[in-house]
Specification:
Shape: globular
Largest sheet: 6 strands, mixed
CATH architecture of the largest domain: Alpha-Beta Complex
Bound molecules: ligand T3D
Radius of gyration: 19 Å
Structural class: alpha/beta
CATH superfamily of the largest domain: 2-enoyl-CoA Hydratase, Chain A, domain 1
């Protein structure tokens, strides 16, 4: 059988490809658990500086595989806690930047996955649908947390209630992605972007991700305190010394050491 996740590393970029193209990469348990495990491995691998999650074929991820739901021996709550929730936590907690490279339609939990990246890059033919209400379910896998923070409560509610399809230009306008690239150049543009990120100071980016994630759920006072703590960890790291030395020597800093 075909592996449900394809994995390859190039120039410090680990690309994890959802690989059920004939189902628009709809997620079964094997795909969810394998992706989560691959993220854990990427986090532990010093050769990996950036992780890309993308889809094979014309879809990114059509959400839960609806062929797998009936006859399941888990409740919805148990299933979410065992599969989707650990995946989204793994992405948000990863010590390296995660790019979600949305090559096509992202629906349901696939939309949540698309939104969960630190950087979201979309192909021109990408789209996002909070499709859950079409099958009378509640948005899950973090959509209720991500989407209102991006577009506000009211737009989020409308997108969820009517399950409208957001195309790439609207996705960019609404802040659901950082960049849109033409389909024919998408894979190359994603790799080039990821390599640019991989050349940045990894320790500083890890701490930046921690600081932002903390700040999203806290007060200014607490965020200021956490910044002061994390700044110590950044300032004590060799990357900081290299950055300052490079500035004084009027050269580009070298943040990648074997
Ligand atoms: O614990 C729990 O289980 C709860 C968790 C819930 C999380 C969720 O994600 S709930 C939402 C589940 N997803 C959906 O409801 C989406 C269903 N799919 C669609 O609405 C459409 O396929 C799309 C809008 C995503 C794309 O439409 P289109 O016209 O581009 O493609 P298509 O023809 O509908 O799909 C192509 C094939 O993929 C087709 O198979 P076929 O006819 O060629 O053999 C279709 O059945 C299959 N497919 C698409 N989505 C799913 C799927 N098969 C299984 N599960 C899917 N989600």
């Amino acid at each position: 059988a075909q592996p449900v996740i394809l994995a390859q590393t190039r120039a410090g970029v680990r690309t994890l490809t959802l690989n059920r193209p004939d189902r628009l990469n709809a997620a079964n348990d094997a795909l969810l658990l394998t992706l989560t495990e691959e993220l854990r491995l990427a986090d532990a691998d010093p050769a990996v500086r950036v992780v890309v999650i993308t889809g094979a074929g014309r879809g990114f991820c059509a959400g839960q595989d609806l062929g797998d739901v009936s006859g399941r021996d888990m409740t919805f709550t148990e299933h979410l806690r065992a599969t989707y929730n650990p995946l989204i936590r793994a992405i948000r907690g990863l010590s390296k930047p995660v790019i979600t490279a949305v090559n096509g339609v992202a629906a349901g939990a696939g939309a949540s996955l698309a939104l969960s990246g630190d950087i979201r890059l979309w192909a021109g033919s990408a789209s996002l649908i909070e499709v859950f209400s079409n099958i009378a379910l509640v948005p899950d896998s973090g959509s209720t947390w991500f989407l209102p923070r991006l577009v506000g409560y009211h737009r989020a509610f409308e997108l969820m209630a009517l399950a409208g399809r957001v195309g790439a230009q609207d996705g960019l306008r609404l802040g659901l992605c950082e960049h849109v690239y033409p389909d024919e150049r998408f894979a190359d543009e994603v790799q080039a972007y990821a390599e640019r990120l991989a050349a940045r100071p990894a320790n500083a980016l890890k701490l930046t991700k921690q600081a932002l994630n903390f700040a999203l759920t806290t007060t200014l006072d607490q965020a200021l305190d956490r910044e002061a703590e994390l700044q110590q960890l950044a300032g004590d790291h060799w990357e900081h010394e290299e950055g300052v030395r490079a500035f004084k020597e009027k050269r580009a800093p070298e943040f990648v050491r074997e």
